[in-house]
User: Fold this.
Amino acid sequence: MSNLENLKKQAKQYLRWHRDQYYPVAAMIREHVPRFQELSDEEILAAEFRLADAQELVARKEGFAGWQALRTGAPTAMSETKRVTPAVLTSIAPLLFVHDFNASVDFFTTKLGFAVDFTYGDPPFYGQVSRDHALMALRCVCEPVFAGDIREREGLLSAAITVASVDEIKELFLAYQAAEVPFQQLLKNEPWGAKTFVVRDLDGNLILFAGPSR
Assistant:
């Protein structure tokens, strides 16, 4: 199969992902298709996305100005004309392994104040929740991830989230306390000048919240 045929298949895959509301494709569309550059992920997934847009995405990823330029140069010129630019890291999302995906989503939304960004699968087994600038990816697994009780014994953190002020870390702790969130560690001052507490989710994942101590 020629390179061009493979790229046609890629374009159709991006089109299906957009139709299926597969959240990660939004960032790819925004990066490579100019008319989507000022839109949020939600706006991109709600907007009309045509096969021509998907083909433009593929062409620009390969270093061409558009699909027609790719068709003219493919398959021989692609490796020579593809532009190489430094990658820009835009976000990070710790990946938590959970046993009951729906129960975990409910915990993060009702107890910790996160919102659902997207879920994937039927039934869903993967998704992302967020609160302000904090992102958390959830992945359902049916097997134990840690051996024995090593996570509890060693205090192995799955994620660390920070706030900007001492008032915020106190307010967040009190809000979680009122919501009866399970704590691995209550609010305390650390020797390095931070005030922290640790939440334990339904699967034993330990999530550190930290802010200034004064």
About this structure: The beta strands are 95-98, 115-121, 124-131, 134-140, 157-162, 183-189, 194-200, 206-212. The CA atoms of residues 160 and 208 lie 5 Å apart.
